[in-house]
User: Which sequence fits this backbone?
């Protein structure tokens, strides 16, 4: 069951009008949450939106019939889902529906860590991520592609640190919960 960090950058927030400019994904270790593969950054400015979606389909096995061939892990995967589904269909490619198979979205953990509040629970608020992606459309329009790549690498680093921290801490919480609630379950 390969798990992959998944993220995209876009020219805006509307998948009907805006385009995907990058798709980035990286294999993660199932037991530690750490990166074990190279970060793949597919760049529309080197080809086109359609071509990077095609490259993603071919390189990731996201459309493999076995549902556990590509398990995306991200932060607010609904955004990636809406764009990948809409933009793949708009480019007359097979529809990419990442939420119809197993996935892990860490956004809910961020909300719970933020005392149930959505406001202030973004990855840039919880981690060392320096900013959100609001400058990506301007950088793309100004052809400041190096800034986009730098942002992606920083965001990926911070996500993986957060993910690995969660993978390390949450199993201990299960043990603590069972002990505090006198629950005896054998692990298989």
Assistant:
């Amino acid at each position: 069951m390969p798990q992959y960090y998944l993220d995209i950058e876009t020219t805006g927030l509307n998948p009907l009008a805006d385009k995907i400019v990058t798709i980035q994904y990286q294999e993660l270790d199932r037991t530690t949450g750490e990166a074990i593969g190279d970060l793949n950054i597919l760049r529309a400015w080197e080809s086109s939106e359609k071509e990077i979606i095609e490259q993603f389909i071919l390189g990731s096995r996201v459309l493999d019939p076995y549902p556990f061939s590509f398990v995306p892990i991200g932060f607010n995967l609904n955004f990636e889902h809406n764009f990948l589904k809409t933009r793949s269909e708009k480019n007359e490619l097979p529809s990419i529906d990442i939420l119809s198979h197993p996935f892990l979205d860490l956004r809910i953990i961020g909300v719970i860590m933020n005392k149930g509040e959505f406001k202030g629970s973004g990855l840039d608020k919880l981690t060392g991520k320096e900013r959100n992606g609001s400058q990506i459309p301007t950088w793309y329009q100004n052809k400041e592609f190096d800034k986009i790549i730098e942002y992606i690498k920083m965001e990926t680093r911070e996500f993986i640190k957060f993910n690995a921290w969660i993978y390390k801490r949450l199993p201990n919480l299960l043990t603590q919960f069972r002990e505090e609630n006198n629950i005896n379950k054998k692990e298989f």
Remarks:
- The chain has a mean pLDDT of 95.
